[in-house]
Amino acid sequence: MAMNRWARRARAGSLSLVITVVVLAALVAANVLASKSTQALDLTHGKLNTLAPQSVLAAQRLTSDLQVVGLFRTGADNGETAAEALIGLYAAQSSHVKYRREDVDADSTDVKKYAIKEPNTVVLDYKGKTALLTPTLQGEVDFTAALLRLESDRVPLVCWAIGDGERGLKDVNQVSGYSGVADILAKNNFSTRDLLISQVTSIPSDCDELAIIDPTAALPAPSVKAVGDYLAAGGKLLVAAEPWAKDAATTESLNAALKPYGLGFSGALVVETDPSRRSSSDPTIPAVTAYGRSPITTDIQGRVSFFPQATAITGIPETGVTATPLATTSTTSYAIAQPRAVQDLSRKAGDVSGPFNIMESLEETAGAKRTRIVMVGTADFAENRTLPPNNSDSNLELALASFQWLAEQDSLIAIPPKAARALPLALTQQDQSTLIFITGVLLPGLMVFGGVMVWWRRRVFS
Q1: What is the structure's pLDDT at 34?
Q2: How open is the CA angle 81-85-90, to the nearest 5 degrees?
Q3: What is the mean pLDDT of the chain?
Q4: Do 402 and 281 fall within a single domain?
Q5: What span, in angstroms and rounded, lies between the C-alpha atoms of 343 and 285?
Q6: Is the pLDDT of residue 179 over 90?
Q7: What integer pLDDT is reported at residue 421 of this predicted model?
């Protein structure tokens, strides 16, 4: 009887030992395979350790080798580890990314060739064109912006209307300024030029796009005609209006330029009553997560953007015009035509029922060209306070994609990099070996040892 009991215990102990050894072997094998793999899984909330879609696209569009030269000075805090970790993410997307590290104090050839003025500079050399990333400009945003410039043979020009109270690219005011848009355009290979639109009788032919953002005075008739002629010849326009304009003629002048396409701005203030489709604190700030199908919105479906103090886009597209509603309010929204006090925005008789389009794109064939227009019912959608670093919603992506679509850069539309991001932990081969030993051998080994000791004690003292 006692012998049977000991035999059963021995078999149970042997089985436990075998299972433990198998699990230990599996853990060791998994760690070794993981250490040799280039695949990674980013579990951070904002995908901080993953390149943004625009960065991935920029890397994958390389058709020749991109020589990346890190000219570092040996020493702590030289930025080398972070820079090389980031470069590695791009290299994982394209075999054309070739990196070499040089000592800035010993490599006089590269220092002279690229006119290096500061140590710890990263050089990007592509098809005979170069970009220098100094130590303060070595984030993902900077790297991708440099790639886009190197890859592009064309720099679209955005002519920015000024002189009639429009929002300005140089205005850094958080509430009204558009300096954030200027920064976005510069980093995505656009150039800009101010245009005194009230003084022109024709839009310059080198304007790839025209932006008219919330004028506070009516455009003169010659300017309206100039915009109309520009669009009829295949021009591109981004136009934004506001509700309750101080001078109704302002909205009317914008609508006159848009009349050939059948749409215009109502001028009424949209109020959103659906709590899931607006800012939690303000019914005059509609929120959108479901967008119309367009290259502009492909990458932001399901992501929220806000349209503060918006007016509705109304009308029926003319024959031959393809209109795509990009952002729409709920069926319970309504529009107030005449100004009221902020405390008196509840629905009253005469208010128009929704839903309303508050952002829409238009396209029409114009000979061998295509006329493209993006209409937005609020200029606030891209003011500084709605863009990073002040706001992390999708207004930035929506604004940038609009400019790219107007420039007929549909293939480049992708979510741009985050301004700040974490980088993967860079480990030396020794670090990796130590980590594998601890997680794959030492810890499981301690578990096995503990199990064996428990089994032995039970055998001896039972």
Answers
A1: 57
A2: 145
A3: 86
A4: yes
A5: 15
A6: yes
A7: 44
pLDDT in tens, 351-380: 999 999 999 999 999 999 999 999 999 999
pLDDT exceeding 70 applies to what percent of the chain?
84
Q: Is residue 421 part of a domain?
A: no
User: Please, is 331 exposed, middle or buried when counting C-beta atoms within 10 Å of its C-beta (0-12, 13-18, 19+)?
Assistant: exposed
CA distance 78 to 75: 6
How many Å apart are CA 236 and CA 238, to the nearest integer? 7
Q: What is the DSSP-derived secondary structure letter of residue 220?
A: P
Residue 388: pLDDT over 90 = no
DSSP 51-112: --HHHHHHHHT--S-EEEEEEE-SSTTSSHHHHHHHHHHHHTT-TTEEEEEEETTT-HHHHH
> 256 and 372 share a domain?
yes
Looking at the predicted structure, is the pLDDT value of residue 229 above 50? yes
Give pLDDT, residue 426: 45
Does 272 reside within a domain?
A: yes
Q: Are residues 296 and 320 in the same domain?
A: yes
Nearest alpha carbon to residue 148 among 126, 169, 128: 126
Number of residues written out for the chain: 462
Q: How confident is the model at residue 18 (pLDDT cuts 50, 70, 90)?
A: low
Quote the domain boundaries for residue 107: 53-151
Is residue 45 domain-resident? Answer: no
pLDDT, tens digit (0-9, with 9 covering 90-100), for 413-461: 766 776 654 444 444 456 567 777 777 777 777 777 777 777 666 666 6
Residues 6+ apart with CB under 8 A from 384: 172, 173, 174, 175, 177, 178, 179, 180, 390
Question: Are 223 and 324 in the same domain?
Answer: yes
Is pLDDT larger for residue 271 or for residue 188? 271
Please check whether residues 203 and 335 belong to one and the same domain. yes
- The number of distinct structural domains making up the chain is 3
Count H helices, E strands: the chain? 11, 18
Q: What is the pTM of this model?
A: 0.72
Which two three-digit tokens encode residue 442? 């030492």
The reply to whether 82 and 209 lie within a common domain is no
Alpha-carbon distances of 22 from 8, 70, 455, rounded to whole Å:
21, 45, 18
Does position 462 have pLDDT exceeding 70, yes or no?
A: no
Residue 76 · residue 47 · CB < 8 Å: no
Domain shared by 195 and 111, yes or no? no
